[in-house]
Write a structure and sequence with these properties.
heterodimer, A: mainly beta, OB fold (Dihydrolipoamide Acetyltransferase, E2P), four-stranded antiparallel sheet, 1 helix, 10 strands, B: alpha/beta, 2-enoyl-CoA Hydratase, Chain A, domain 1, eight-stranded mixed sheet, seven-stranded mixed sheet, 20 helices, 39% helix
Chain lengths: 139, 517
């Protein structure tokens, strides 16, 4: 908490300010580099986010443990189905939580990999599933 | 008498011919396809006019199959040194327009000479791989060339950072030179890397497969774990190299380029609190924690698409360069498995080679149970993490956010593996195993005989959790140095690290340890 006195058009107000995050603290850390590289900060700024690996479309070949067709959503690990949010015929958006698998003291949420319609729900709550097992099929 | 103009002209002419590699038309053809030439790549990497070439006028040494009549400018590889954002770096770039970038003995000699130079001068080295492979006409001399490059890769390992860009074909033995470097960046579409391609696999085993499945950037990034970054194109690959170099020291005898602010702000970050789910079964998103904990936009994730249950990468913490190892509970519950152990152990060892402090963020429920893991050797793979952390003498700071169970707790740089500071949030659970499992083992008999086993079990679980699923048991045994609020984490880690930059730790001399491989 910080107390500030603010004067607006001659009137004095006392306000209390709670600072949640320090905004600018990073600023003085990056003095312009010495020498001919004054352009460096300009270049490196967008790089910081762009320089992570380019998104790779994960082709079926990259995940040979998934036995079923292209629309199959498989379990990452062995566990128990603790919640099921979709039924056959539902329309889902990429990122929607389809269900949760409990394993290792943790609920692992399974998200829809893309937009589509749920054509098959292969499990019910309470089922034990294996790693790589098809849970839901989205067309 | 001034120098004879004819001599100067002859030099200029020779230089121009050599600079054009496989010929102007071939260079233009590449550019039209959207590909950089060997020299374009070096131009992109180095600050303008700073590239100093060595070996432009070499001649290949093959006298068979009519090769003696052929000129191969620079013998198909451009080598030299220059400045990248103001710091000196050595680089070589294979020229696909000259005999398909094939590696002959002089080509290899140029690369080896450059590596020797980089080793002596203590410069990082970057290589652009774009080669059809061994120059068949040079037979065993070409193989010997590969052998010499590999040997020098190993000499340089741990002395200077080595970065390889797979910018074109990289087949057979050629793939092993990048594999011996520290970081491999692969360009989508134009690059592929494999030991035996689809044709050889088909001939030898009858299996049919595609290049996409065997040697693409996607497969190496997601499945084989052979590469560290995927680039969209040449320009993007160069951007990644430059960004990577901003975290690295020139060699193992100097510190990484920390940018220490004159004052250390210890502001609280209340917004950290929102990232901690109240329910301990709900996964915490470690990526969000990393984004908040370290300097804005400073995080460069390494091997992002492989073994996603662990996150590794470089960042800055109030200007200090750090290597981050962090469990990702959003994937496979954050468990450690074979691939995650390999990924983390290799990164820890890189950081230790080059004096980069290690920050470990822990939220791990254990090693991944399963037949495939046991049979695949999780014991020896998991042991790599124990080995790498124990052997690392750089500053090691461990932050336990939530779960830290069993052997995985130890493997995530516990106090006993030599962590210099261990912090925990009040949400930390440090125990041998989860409450449910522990109660079933400890009270099997009592539960059997209880009037209401279910109720008694719940009672015992609650009791166990209260006692052991907290940071205070560990703190009471001095295995944790402090329990802190999430809002104080950034300040606490930064302060601890600033006080550790002068760390010195020596171990008994030996050739090298024997890490389980």
């Amino acid at each position: 908490m910080k107390k500030l006195r603010v004067t607006v058009e001659g009137k004095v107000y006392e306000v209390t300010v709670e600072i949640l995050d320090a905004g600018k603290e990073g600023a003085p850390l990056f003095p312009p580099a010495v020498g001919s590289v004054s352009a460096a900060p300009v270049v490196s700024a967008p790089v910081a986010s762009a320089s992570v690996s380019a998104p790779v479309s994960a082709p079926a070949a990259a995940a040979p443990s998934v036995p079923a067709g292209p629309g199959a959503v498989a379990s990452q690990l062995a566990g128990k189905i603790v919640s099921l949010n979709v039924k056959e015929g539902d329309t889902v958006k990429a990122g929607d939580v389809l269900l949760a698998v409990e394993a290792m003291k943790m609920n692992t949420y399974v998200n829809a990999p893309r937009d589509g319609k749920v054509t098959k729900v292969a499990v019910v709550v309470g089922d034990a599933v294996n790693e790589g097992q098809t849970l839901v099929v989205i067309e | 008498m001034p120098i004879s103009q004819a001599v100067v002209d002859a030099l200029r002419k020779k230089r121009e011919v050599a600079l054009n590699g496989g010929g102007k038309d071939k260079l233009e053809e590449r550019r039209k396809k959207g590909l950089f030439t060997a020299r374009d790549r070096l131009d992109g990497l180095f600050d303008s006019s700073t590239f100093q070439e060595r070996g432009l006028f070499v001649q290949h040494s093959c006298h068979n199959f009519g090769m003696e009549k052929k000129e191969l400018p620079a013998d198909g590889v451009v080598t030299g040194t220059g400045y990248v954002s103001g710091t000196p770096v050595a680089a070589f770039s294979q020229d696909f327009t000259v005999a398909g970038g094939s590696l002959g003995s002089i080509h290899a000699k140029k690369i080896v000479n450059l590596m020797d130079h980089a080793l002596k001068a203590g410069l990082p080295i970057v290589g652009f791989m774009d080669s059809g492979g061994a120059r068949i006409q040079e037979a065993v001399e070409s193989l010997s060339g590969y052998g010499q490059v590999f040997f020098h890769n190993v000499l340089a390992s741990g002395v200077i950072p080595q970065i390889a860009v797979i910018a074109g074909p990289c087949a057979g033995g050629a793939a092993y030179s990048p594999a011996l470097t520290d970081f491999q960046i692969m360009i989508k579409k134009q690059a592929n890397m494999f030991i035996c391609g689809p044709d050889v696999i088909k001939a030898a085993t009858g299996q049919t497969c595609t290049m996409e499945e065997v040697g693409s950037a996607a497969v190496h990034a997601t499945t084989s774990g052979n590469i560290h970054f995927v680039a969209e194109n040449d320009a993007h690959a160069i951007q990644i190299v430059k960004q990577l170099l901003t975290y690295l020291p020139a060699n193992n005898m100097v510190d990484p380029p920390h940018k220490l602010p004159p004052t250390l702000s210890l502001t609280k970050h209340k917004s950290m609190e929102a990232l901690v789910p109240a329910d301990s079964k709900s996964p915490l998103d470690m990526a969000a924690v990393i984004a908040k904990l370290f300097d804005a936009n400073s995080f460069l994730e390494v091997q992002r698409d492989w073994a996603k249950n662990i996150i590794v990468g470089f960042a800055r913490l109030k200007g200090m360069v750090v290597a981050i190892i962090a469990n990702q509970p959003m994937v496979k519950a954050g468990t450690l498995d074979i691939d995650a152990s390999d990924k983390a152990a290799r990164f820890i060892r890189f950081a230790n080679c080059f004096n980069i402090p290690i920050v470990t963020l822990v939220d791990v429920p254990g090693f991944l149970p399963g037949l495939a893991q046991e049979r695949g050797g999780i014991i020896r793979h998991g042991a790599k993490m124990l080995f790498a952390y124990s052997a690392a003498t750089v500053p090691k700071i461990t932050m336990i956010l939530r779960k830290a169970y069993g052997g995985a707790y130890l493997a995530m740089c516990s106090k006993d593996l030599g962590a210099d500071f261990v912090f925990a949030w009040p949400t930390a659970e440090i125990a041998v195993m989860g409450a449910e499992g522990a109660v079933r083992v400890l009270f099997r008999k009592e539960l059997k005989e209880a009037a209401d086993p279910k109720a008694r079990e719940a009672e015992l679980i609650a009791e166990y959790r209260e006692k052991f699923a907290s940071p205070y048991q560990a703190a009471s045994k001095a295995l944790i140095d402090d329990v802190i609020e999430p809002a104080d984490t950034r300040a606490a880690l930064a302060m601890a690290l600033r006080n550790l930059l002068s760390k010195r730790e020596t171990r008994p001399p030996k050739k090298h340890g024997n890490i389980p491989l």
